[in-house]
Write a structure and sequence with these properties.
The chain has 18 helices and 12 strands. The protein is an alpha/beta fold. The strands form 2 sheets. A 6-stranded parallel sheet has the order 2-1-3-4-5-6, with helices on both faces. Helix 1 crosses helix 18 and helix 10 (about 215-230) packs parallel to helix 11 (about 250-255). The two termini are about 25 Å apart.
Length: about 400
Amino acid sequence: MNAPARSPDAFRLPDGRALSVFLIAGEPSGDALGADLMRALTKRAGAMRFAGVGGPAMEAQGLKSLLPLSEIAVMGILPVLRRLPYLIASIRMVARAVIAARPDVLVIIDSPDFTHRVARRVRGARPDLPIVNYVGPSVWAWRPGRARRMRAYLDHVLALLPFEPAAYARLGGPACTYVSHPLVGQIAALRPSAEDLRLQDAMSPTVLVMPGSREAEIRRLMPVFGSAVALLSETARLDVLLPTLPHLEPLVRSEAQKWLIKPRIVTDTREKFAAMKRGRAALIASGTATLELALAGVPMVVAYRVSLIEEIVARLMIKVPDLALPNLILGRTIVPEFLQRNCTPTRLVAGLRPLLYGGVERDAQLAAFRELDSLMKADRQGSPGQMAADIIGRIAHRPSG
């Protein structure tokens, strides 16, 4: 069901003032979501007052960030430990800034290790301030006890995955609403036309290779992906395309030089979408891009490798049987996953080869991907930010709790 449009008055206080919204994003993906939300709020209200922490996208919408996003967008155990004193000081500083600014609503976006610590401090000092979490932590996957604890300092969670509201309710968490996923708005650009499908059948199979969006992922997966492509090419003539991000291109190109079969590397977004329309099958690192491929209708094999320490921690804490987002959303294993010691060239090729041509494995993935339209509510109108804006406008008018 589409969210009803709200009048500008819904975003103004009884004295006529526009709502003051304090936003905190902790990484580039949150910056993009925050910018979309700011656009939607401004469109709804005509004028808004923003403050907080964000990156270039949010700054382009008028935010003056309290600190550079790059300083807190830290991933991985060791990088976090190295910057721990700075991160702790930043959490305290941002919390003080929220309290001093006296906004009408606080919106924290993803990055729970940073944003939730700020939210807890703010709730202690301003228990009346409504706090909304845009993209809550994956309590359904690991540390489920967090869900109940979040009720003490969060009023609402805005989810990007359709099964999350039920998961939060089951675990005793805060109220949670599915506001759609940004990828749903890109379906038209992702999906092949009838002509694209005809060309797929007429040309040599195009294999997409997507080794991740972080340097550690690329370094671990590129060698095994290269060996898999070489092994697969022994029995099939392939066109290998490797979409990546511009800032990762030097590393990807350096690793690809070691491959026997050299891929064609693309970094432009339009080239990436064109590649997906041509893709017959894909070899991909576990992550958000698996959902992108599923919505584009590209059958895939998912792989992942982490360090031994990270593997031990994951085995102790992860509570779901699958990692790939299409499997999690569909509620069953449709996309084969090869993790850690099972991530070998031989196993990857065994999973990938049947996807290049018609057959049971390929048809099963394509049929399952068609189910995603209904589950993701691909017919919804409006971006996640537009749906989130309506909820935030409503919550900002009532007391916390």
